[in-house]
Specification:
- Strands 1-6-5-2-3-4 form a six-stranded mixed sheet, with helices on both faces. Strands 9-15-14-11-12 form a five-stranded mixed sheet. A two-stranded antiparallel ribbon has the order 7-8.
- A hairpin with a 2-residue loop joins β11 and β12.
- The radius of gyration is 24 Å and the shape is globular.
- The protein starts with 7 loop residues before the first helix and ends with a strand.
- With 416 residues, the chain is α/β, with parallel strands linked by helices.
- α10 crosses α11 and α13 runs parallel beside α15.
- Helix content is 44%, strand content 14%.
Length: 416
Amino acid sequence: MAYHPKSEFLNVMVARGFMADCTDLQGLDEALVAGVVPAYIGFDATATSLHVGSLIQIMMLRWLQKTGHKPIVLMGGGTTKVGDPSFRADERPLLTEAQINGNIDGIKQVFSHYVSFGDAAGDAIMVNNAEWLDGLNYLEFLRDVGRHFSVNRMLAFESVKSRLDREQSLSFLEFNYMILQAYDFMELHRRYGCLMQMGGSDQWGNIVNGIDLTRRILDDQVFGLTSPLLTTSDGKKMGKSQDGAVWLNADLVSPYQFWQFWRNTTDADVGRFLKLYTELPVDECERLGALEGSEINDAKAILAGEVTALLHGRDAAEAAAATAREVFEKGGTGDELPTLELDAAELGDGISVVQLIVRSGLAKSGKDAKRLIAEGGARMNDADLSDAGLFLTPGDLAEPIKLSAGKKRHALVKLG
């Protein structure tokens, strides 16, 4: 990078690996030095929780506030009704307004762990774009906003072009998404003085549209900054595990499961993830990431502890680490393990071990559970489990039992 930023925020973004592109690096840097810069990231409400894939953006908002600027968390109550087509192969299923509002309520829980909300200059605010999108007059919107968009230019954006190149349908509904997102940026600038939009690099086209629209209609300059789209070193999309999405809400993924996800980071990703997802000094992140052999496992435990502490609190992180030590080093059961509670009435005469493996989340289906047993990957109370036909009676479950899939995934089963 030829230009060396003067602002603390951009220096953090560069040093810790958050920076992919910026529309005007020097101009943004000067604005950040001159005073408090309000900046936003949008989150569509397509589920009741965000997952680990959104954590890089959440950390950008956190660093923005830590370096003296104002985070704006934009909930897409309006745009979720349309659906972002960026780099998708198909159209998103449409959600009802009640579903969207329920999802927003779930997502809100996460942000209070990362940014502080309030009315002061540097306090974060959360806004919902349904406030201005729901009441738009379509004809006025077409005349005042739509006329500034070139279809030729929109078709050239990579997010749209990749879909069309694969001859996959792109509905007019989705095509409107980039106009609405551009309008969001302009409206946030008009209402809150927002000077910057941040997002993943797949949002570059949408961000540029918003900058262009704000210049055309308001004759104001605003900025865009994108982060790299993260995959793990083995090419997998960040935020997914073999059990599915790693959600940030504790009712969907327990603090122990969350800790365990980060503890299972591959060696090559440790240093990079420490810089992105923790607040440890950069040189310490690099030192830990360079460890080898058994020492890298200590670095992974530090990574897991720091990331879990930010989201769930230090006590939850330490409890998860203690559970891991008990399970892996001492062969214990661990109170914090994911737990399946069975009702004695529903249990009847008993239940098959295959059903228990599925219901405890260690396998997605009976077929998967049987294959796990056949391949020698299942254990019960730390003993190899080889009989897929095993049937457990209420008496067998008088004491909690521990089921394991491989070396790293465990669950408790007990009678309620």
